[in-house]
Design a protein that fits this description.
Order of helices and strands: EEHEEEHEEEEHEEHHEEEHEEEE
Number of domains: 2
CATH architecture of the largest domain: Roll
Shape: globular
Helix content: 10-25%
CATH class of the largest domain: Alpha Beta
Largest sheet: 18 strands, mixed
CATH superfamily of the largest domain: Diaminopimelate Epimerase, Chain A, domain 1
Strand content: 35-45%
Number of strands: 18
């Protein structure tokens, strides 16, 4: 039986920007080994696999080309977009059962809102080789459940980075977030995210890192609502709201490809 699959650009309203995600709403249960092979074949940052549940919710798993991950924002946004666009869900809110608990996506004025758990960082010392691999001087180093978080002096440092991905892949973490205040008045903070150990040298748009960035910048500014930009080559905009131990991530999505898997 052929299995439909789509590719969606997330955290953007323009095709060929934001972060591409594969989305596969399964017609029948499939093993994780098959999902990993499909993710490798798609060769985008993450491919999402959804299995409908009897209660109307969906089981959701995310795979990079090399590993399964515990939390992924852009592929969750892409999944919700796909369910609504295809008519597989008529509800205004969709619930996903994941390795990070139950996540909710809802529609609001052309945006998709994701309700995610906050993953705040704790101050730490940079492990040997981290700052050298990134090529930056840090104002602050922290570590969240998943990643190292590095604050740098200004946006020009973030945009000018040329990391050594081979050295960075040796760091014991999912990846490294580099952030600063924005130099643009209508944007609060900027970031880039590097995860070569997970098979992604630089992720174009990363929802899950904003579950750390939101609490980090909230503690520094006293604000709870932000407009953030991820300064990858493709570029992305994420609206972030912090509410205790939850973070709301908001963005748009565009479907760019529809196809069938024959294997």
């Amino acid at each position: 039986m052929a299995q439909s699959i789509v590719q969606v650009d997330a955290f953007t309203s323009t095709a060929f920007a934001g972060n591409p995600a594969g989305v596969c709403v399964l017609e029948q249960p499939r093993p994780a080994t098959w999902m990993q092979l499909v993710a490798r074949e798609m060769n985008v940052a993450e491919t999402a696999f959804l299995q409908p549940r009897s209660d109307g919710d969906f089981d959701l798993r995310w795979f990079t080309p090399t590993v399964e991950v515990d939390l992924c924002g852009h592929a969750t946004l892409a999944s919700a977009h796909t369910l609504w666009e295809s008519g597989r869900s008529q509800a205004n809110a969709v619930r996903f059962h994941t390795r990070s608990g139950v996540l909710t996506a809802s529609r609001r004025d052309g945006f998709i809102d994701l309700d995610f758990p906050a993953t705040p960082d704790e101050p730490t010392s940079a492990p040997p080789g981290l700052l050298e691999a990134l090529g930056v001087t840090a104002l602050y180093v922290g570590r969240s459940r998943f990643d190292f978080l590095i604050e740098v002096a200004d946006e020009s440092v973030v945009t000018g980075m040329r990391p050594d991905f081979r050295r960075l892949a040796a760091i014991d973490a999912r990846g490294a977030i580099v952030t600063s205040r924005s130099s643009t008045p209508d944007v609060d903070f900027v970031s880039r995210f590097f995860a070569p150990a997970s098979g992604i040298d630089e992720d174009p748009a990363t929802g899950s890192t904003h579950c750390c960035l939101g609490p980090f910048w909230s503690a520094r500014t006293g604000k709870r609502t932000f407009v953030a930009r991820q300064l990858s080559e493709r570029g992305a905009e994420v609206h972030v709201s912090v509410n205790g131990d939850r973070v709301r991530l908001s963005g748009r999505a565009v479907t760019v490809l529809r196809g069938e898997l024959l294997a």
